[in-house]
Amino acid sequence: MPRINSLTWLVGFPCLLALVTWRTVSWPYTKVEESFTIQAVHDILSYGVSPTALERFDHQVFPGAVPRSFVGPLALAAVAYPFLWLCRAVGAVQTSADVQAIVRLCLGTANAAAAAFFAQASFASANDAKNARGSVSSSARTQLGFFFAITATQFHFGFWVSRTIPNSIALPFAVMALALVCRNLDLNSKCAQRSSRDIRIALWLLTFSAVILRSEIAATIIPVGLYLLFTGRFGLLAAIKTGLAAATFSVAVTTFIDTYFWQDLQQNTAQGILTAFTTAVVRGFRGEGPPPLWPELNALVFNVVDGKSSEWGVSPWHAYFTALLPRLLVFSESLLLYGAIEAMSARPSALTVRARFLLLTAGCHMAVLSCLGHKEWRFILYVVPALNAVSAGGAEMLTRSTVRKIALVTLLALQVGLSWLSGHLSAINYPGGQALDLLHRQLALESSMGPVIVHIDVAAAMTGVSLFQSLNMPRDGSGGLVDRFAGVVPSNCETHGCWVYDKTEDLPVSGPQAAEAWSKFTHLLEYSRECRVMLSSSDATATPLPDDEQPFEPLTSPVTMFAGFRRKTVAQILRDLASAPKATVVAILGSSEDNSQPNPMRLLLPLDILEEPAIWLCRRKDAK
């Protein structure tokens, strides 16, 4: 194995995978942005994919603003299934929450592997090619190491690549596509057979992910295609043929699958996948109903053509370059500047040619998306590995003098510190998931307990509650051939009894109807302070009824979430620094469940991290 390949797969990839695994296990909950995919994977693995199973799917009750494709969740469930089966066989999976962790680990592993493949492709052939003296250059090996160091120290990669937002599912396809193009950008490999094959695969991957998963990846296809055409690495006719074939196949896949999963079961019974597709084609042709569903096209029309995305906020045209990209890169942005200067000024080589291509691709991607008013960092997540490769070149430049080495080490150390702080703040931003976990543990201690019906309000559902986290939910998939997925998600009904997890919204809060509506619940996960769900009226100015008229009371202290920072005084800073060594020893030797001891890392900060009550655990007063 060439040395750069061994460095990639025996050192870089395991380190990156260890980081992703730690982030996944330490932060096990999910938020509303991840909900569609994680709920869909749960339903596929729990109930199967037969027509009789569709009516139990979460999207039938909570469809969201626009339909999303089931192709990603199906692929993720298929990848996770053999690992889940193996883990269940050896007893490593005990609850449905364990299944969620493994599903996320599969996604994180795919993204870490894609990043490693990208690194290998970006630096390998340059390292293997000998210079005029016959020695192998060490520059590519050094840049490879810095690529992994920069990627690992950035918070967003380690935290988000295992999270089931659609962007993370599309990320490995986009990164592998850039890798396939990059490894063929040697100065002497324009017409190689492998080059043509790799470029075709890259265009297929980009088109597939843009058509099915995230339409903004089209902003990556544009610069990649133009670069390949203008440099003569791919012909216009071949590009058109490849693009049309990939687009046709992708549209066929998404319409065939998603028309089936998004059937309107309120009007009709579920049909088989072929029947559902042909029925939609006939009805659409006759004008009697909607045509076969293409979710990403619907989302594009909804967000861009109809301008609905502006309801989530509008940013200046330059926000990607001046705000969102610095948020992703943080201290490595200065390394990107050094790397860009080196790439543009140095004489042509495999490394500089690739760096220029990656800069062009990333810049065009952000420039195209800058034409839209609504902007988010996750829309440019796909080009972060490309920019990190350029930043690695800048980091290698800084190793050429002692002063610059000190600056480089300082930048990476600051990046590590900020990454830890961002992770710590994110850990206290999932009060809904923490509250449900606490409720499970709290009620498990009670010896005798009747039926449990939990109401989960919107705030809790958006901050960590998922179907996988609902441990005591009944899960009984059918035994049909197409439901072989079903049965790998355990249920704790046998030991704790089956619970009902109710997410009904807009319940009445005053009058006889309110008393009746709330009376069926035994417990609540509620944003209302002190479990005061009953109000004097339904007006906006209504006040809570007195405590003796409230049907619920707090079960435990509320779960808190991040509320901001407060500067410490000089005396407090000195006092905290003096207490930090003892707190560190206690944290290492003490119980992980003991929250009474101060966090040693917080003691080292010049700021206080403030938290406020977010979710209250409530029980019905007559259920004691």
Automatic annotation (TrEMBL):
Domain of life (superkingdom): Eukaryota
Transmembrane segments: 7-25, 70-90, 102-124, 169-186, 201-230, 242-262, 406-428
First-tier enzyme category under EC: transferase
Alphabetical UniProt keywords: Endoplasmic reticulum, Glycosyltransferase, Membrane, Transferase, Transmembrane, Transmembrane helix
InterPro entries referenced in this protein's UniProt entry, alphabetically: GPI_mannosylTrfase
Its membrane topology: Multi-pass membrane protein
Enzyme Commission code: 2.4.1.-
Keyword field contains Flavoprotein: no
Main location (coarse class): endoplasmic reticulum
Record-stated family: Belongs to the glycosyltransferase 22 family.
Protein name: Mannosyltransferase
Upper lineage: Eukaryota, Fungi, Dikarya, Basidiomycota, Ustilaginomycotina
